[in-house]
Design brief:
Blueprint (H helix, E strand, L loop, with lengths): L3 E5 L11 E4 L9 E2 L4 H5 L5 H26 L13 H16 L15 E4 L5 E6 L2 H23 L3 E2 L6 E2 L2 H25 L5 H5 L7 H25 L5 H22 L8 H28 L5 H30 L3 E3 L5 H24 L32 H9 L10
Parallel strand pairs: 2-8
Antiparallel strand pairs: 1-5, 3-4, 4-5, 6-7
Helix pairs in contact: 2-3, 3-4, 4-5, 5-7, 7-8, 7-11, 8-9, 9-10, 9-11, 10-11
Family: Belongs to the BROX family.
Organism: Buddleja alternifolia
Protein name: BRO1 domain-containing protein
């Protein structure tokens, strides 16, 4: 019951790992690709033919689209239109949403059917080439992870700057930025549901043998970084607004630090392999450092509004810290882009475009002014502690859908008593 198989990678693997993923504004984890499953062999003695065929058709659609289009989705600088005018990404997300209510029939009310089918997925971040488990909950977890991955890919597409009409400045429209926040919250909702409602359904021995892509720490880190990038966009919008005060900007920047710190805490000790996993860790490190540069900058500006020698000294220390973190973030960014699969930064825009110009300029100015007023010995050598704010941005409340109505008919045809009670 619930046994698993992990196959070690070899030169003939099916990971479809790209060597270059183009421009990255949002880290998108390596896609987990489903392999075909023979439902008829596992379920023909438990379900009627139409139910088995329905499951097979829905999952086969996912296998085909994910397998053929994974390189296109991963290389986010290209967006493929389908014959229906939508995107491949949208088609795959719709296929997953169609499949999930039918899949949940296998686990409804603790059904023994949940252990009859072996589900196989190719891993990107794990040492193993693929992981197979006789667990429908493993399949549900994999589906939610893929839905979150596609949402993060969609956010990246929204946040890649486009050259403006004047042909000089690459920009991301306000509409795209606001839309990306909704997409980040949706991705965080899928991941939060996976951690709180799906992982607990798996026995401890299966949870221990999940690929690292699906480890609780990785799922939590992805959720937190989606929220952290959502706050980053909010900060950029606040910077553009004449109504947003320094206090509002500092609060957003300090919250962003906490999200990225928690994301880093969740993946720091995980056995992430070279490649996607290591790139994931480097992205979190880079964004955490970047967030600290923003937070110390705004904290320094507010401290400088004080009228005491101490407040001015603390302001200088905070601004110097911001400048050091900004320099460090550039090195962390280079390390992220250089790691395989290699990537590159889009043209600088938003929060970091503004801060990359302001932090060195304002730090130099404040240090010069305050060192004229006070002796260098009185300038604090260590940065002041950042204020601690409660985290305001939360994941969307995503709930697993109700079991598809087709299971009621299947119950009648098979003489099973499948209740129509909604999941709690």
């Amino acid at each position: 019951m619930g046994c698993f198989v992990s196959t070690q990678k070899d030169t003939g693997g099916n990971r479809r790992r790209p060597s270059n993923i183009g421009e990255v504004s949002v880290f998108v984890p390596g896609l987990r690709i489903p392999k075909p499953v023979d439902f008829s062999q596992s379920l023909s003695d438990s379900l009627n033919k139409s139910s088995v065929e329905g499951l097979s058709a829905l999952r086969s659609r996912i296998v085909v689209v994910a397998g053929q289009e994974a390189p296109t989705i991963t290389r986010t600088r290209r967006r493929t239109a389908t014959q229906h005018g939508g995107s491949t990404l949208g088609d795959l997300l719709q296929a997953l949403e169609d499949y999930l209510p039918v899949l949940l029939g296998l686990v409804k009310d603790g059904s023994p059917l949940q252990h009859k089918v072996q589900f196989v997925w190719v891993n990107q971040e794990d040492e193993a080439e693929e992981t197979a488990m006789y667990s429908a909950w493993y399949e549900v977890l994999s589906i939610l992870h893929l839905m979150a991955t596609l949402s993060l890919s969609q956010a990246n597409l929204l946040l890649l700057p486009r050259t403006s009409l004047d042909g000089y400045h690459a920009k991301v429209s306000e509409e795209s930025r606001r839309s990306s926040i909704d997409v980040f919250l949706k991705a965080a909702g899928y991941l939060d549901c996976a951690v709180r409602h799906v992982l607990p359904q798996l026995p401890i021995e299966l949870r221990r043998n999940l690929p690292v892509d699906l480890a609780e720490g990785v799922l939590r880190a992805l959720c937190l970084q989606a929220l952290g990038q959502g706050v980053d966009i909010q900060l950029g919008l606040a910077i553009d607004s004449t109504k947003a005060t320094l206090a509002v900007k500092r609060r957003l920047a300090c919250e962003m630090v906490k999200y990225w710190q928690q994301a880093q805490d969740n993946i720091m000790n995980l056995p992430l392999a070279n490649g996607w996993g290591e790139k994931h860790r480097l992205f979190v490190k880079w964004k955490y450092i970047e967030a600290k540069a923003a937070a110390y900058y705004y904290h320094g500006l507010i401290l400088d509004e004080g009228n005491t020698e101490k407040s001015h000294g603390m302001a200088v220390a905070a601004l110097q810290a911001a400048d050091e973190y900004l320099k460090e973030s550039k090195k962390a960014c280079e390390a992220f882009n250089a790691s395989v699969p290699v990537s590159r930064n889009p043209p600088l825009w938003g929060t970091m475009k503004y801060l990359s110009e302001k932090i060195p300029k304002d730090t130099s100015s404040k240090v010069r002014i305050n060192k004229d007023l006070y002796t260098s010995e009185k300038i604090m050598e260590t940065a002041p502690t950042l204020p601690d704010f409660a985290l305001a941005l939360k994941p969307d409340e995503y709930q697993l859908p109700l079991v598809d109505a087709s299971w009621n008919e299947a119950a009648k045809n098979n003489g099973q008593l499948i209740s129509n009670k909604p999941k709690g």
